[in-house]
Amino acid sequence: xxxxxxxxxxxxxxxxxxxxxxxxxYLMAKKTGGKFILRIEDTDRERSTQEYIDSILKAxxxxxxxxxxxxxxxxxxxxxxxxxxxxxxxEGKAYRCFCPAELLEQKRQAAMxxxxxxxxxxxxxxxxxxxxARDPRPYCIRFVSKDExxxxxxxxxxxxxxxxxxxxxxLVIARTDGTPTYNFVVxxxxxxxxxxxxxxxxxxxxxxxxxxxxxxxxxxxxxxxAHVPMILGADKSRLSKRHGATxxxxxxxxxxxxxxxxxxxxxxxWAHGDEEIFSxxxxxxxxxxxxxxxxxxxxxxxxxxxxxxxxxxxxxPQKLLAATRPFLEAxxxxxxxxxxxQRALAxxxxxxxxxxxxxxxxxxxxxxxxxVSDEARKKGLxxxxxxxxxxxxxELSKLRAxxxxxxxxxxxxx
Length: 414
Fold this sequence. Notes:
Layout: E1 3-6, H1 16-32, E2 35-40, H2 50-63, E3 69-73, H3 78-90, E4 94-97, H4 101-113, H5 129-134, E5 140-143, E6 150-155, E7 159-164, E8 172-174, H6 182-192, E9 197-201, H7 208-217, E10 224-228, E11 231-232, H8 248-253, H9 258-266, H10 280-286, E12 297-298, H11 301-314, H12 317-330, H13 338-348, H14 355-361, H15 374-380, H16 383-397, H17 404-412
Parallel strand pairs: 1-2, 2-3, 9-10, 11-12
Antiparallel strand pairs: 4-5, 5-8, 6-7
Helix pairs in contact: 1-10, 6-7, 9-11, 12-13, 12-14
């Protein structure tokens, strides 16, 4: 069975790029009858917070990306990581390195002056295991990387990518305080969770040859990789806060709906003919990671806004009220009659692109009295308009039924 994982770090809110990665993994799991796993990579003790964990889980729930397993927490798996560190040491696939940071920095500076790529020179690689085990000095643990040949990444998006092993030094897999490093724990968790497919951002591509060698050291089949191109802002620089909101929940707060967000995210780098509109169910059948383009996608907030308006217009009255209720309540509006509220929102549904706009436009339906400032009155209603209202008021007063059809017929016949 195919097993896909989404592994965010809780050092921030779930952003647009991460949500797209989660969506791609989710869709391929659905398409292939596989499992979708959520793993929280919380080993960055200084930056990981419960607030961000809760935010990520809330965003996943809002998007409707349900996972089959998890959430697993990397910090809770520390005994498993230590067990695998010991395994590599015992098998001679890793070694203790006693080189102090000052010496490593001197070697790095010397290599740069000589025009060489800074790389650990393997000083401690040859120390016998029993000798190293008795040495009282502080040490980190390094993985014995391959010195010759190439490590190949057969990527579903990038194609075949080769890395010269001579360019890869012996990776530090545990720090001097004993804590394992990111590249190591990622592989151990993939191995022990039996992950078969790794789809992630292409900023991880350079980590991949090191991780492949670690998979091989554990005699684990190399997962299928797909490295998704990054998302750019309109100025073609990497998407960031200066381009507007980047977190998923920020868009929720601005009145976007999950259907629009998912529809837009999947189209950032993927196409299915000329089709623009996709529901999550559609995507579970049509999406294929192999069809994602190699080039970076440009984030277009106007297109997302257009899609949001489209999806809001697809909501039935009950769903529309449920989605808009928080925004109405934020304006201090109480809903006494749900049927009335549904009709009021439906009357405004075609005119808006966000739920915030909908709550604002429908505001007067939920107030006993509407006050209009002099400035607004002058801007929106001149003397000619007032005269029209005076003339039509008697006709409206004659209506026996005060409903949409009756009022519309009266106005159209005036």
